[in-house]
Amino acid sequence: MELRQLRYFASVAREGSINKAARSHGLAQPALTKQLQRLEEELGVTLFERQPRGMTLTAAGTQFLQDVTRALDDLEAARQRAVDAAVGRLGHLAIGLTILHQLLPAVAEILRRFRQQSPDVSVSVRQVISGPQIDLIRAGELDAGFLYFRPADDPAFDGLLISTQQLALAVPDEPQWTDNPPRRLADLNGRDFLWIPRQVTAYYHDRLIAHFHGAGFMPKVVMEGTDNNSLLTLVTAGMGCAILPEQAAAQDIPSVKFLKLDDLDLRLPLELVWRRDNRSPITQRLIELTRQCVAEA
Asked: Which residue range or ranges hold the HTH lysR-type domain (predicted)?
């Protein structure tokens, strides 16, 4: 049983005429008649009653038409899904995002547009800080991620700059911090400092530590957090101060003050990062959409 025979059969059933069906398929009538005969022989049933004015379906033909119609519809749907998957309109996308990045309008706009343009793509978002995102992208567990400081010397990754973020000093809203606020990084020497361990996000950690040392600041780390949000929680509890991306201030926590330091001028490059050998149409669709949003910003 060939697919073309099923299509010929459905056309004759719809048209009620071999002549009309043959013309619609660009065939001679004898050729289409021969295909129908072969189909009936293979099935072992008669599908049509030949009438002087056309073709009518037998009981077997009526049932077969219902099944063939469903099969052809399913086949067309499968073909369309394959086309959609090939151009990134269907499938799954796994994205990495830090807790603070979800507060950025630029990231929210990219995700909103992607959803609008690719409603049939399922999207999962994992809240992971920058360093672990790199590991997950490398392992193929994330297709792409919004993160800071990708390893620029690693040829396995590519990235698209979305924006640069300013850093700020988060301090408890207490007199010991607010009556004589620090103005420079060196003013933090000897003060209780909250930090993220290097093994959690090495690239981010190393860039900031190098900047601190260049400014004459040697952090006295009294407590550690696993991400920027946990650091902010510790500041809220009065445990010390922390360097955080400026968008952390958008959470507007009454017990925390955000200060700008004169020499805290290292800006965080927020990028969409992906593995260079990732040829997924869905990932490429996200990259192109991000490029458009950046160009419009």
From this structure: 1-58
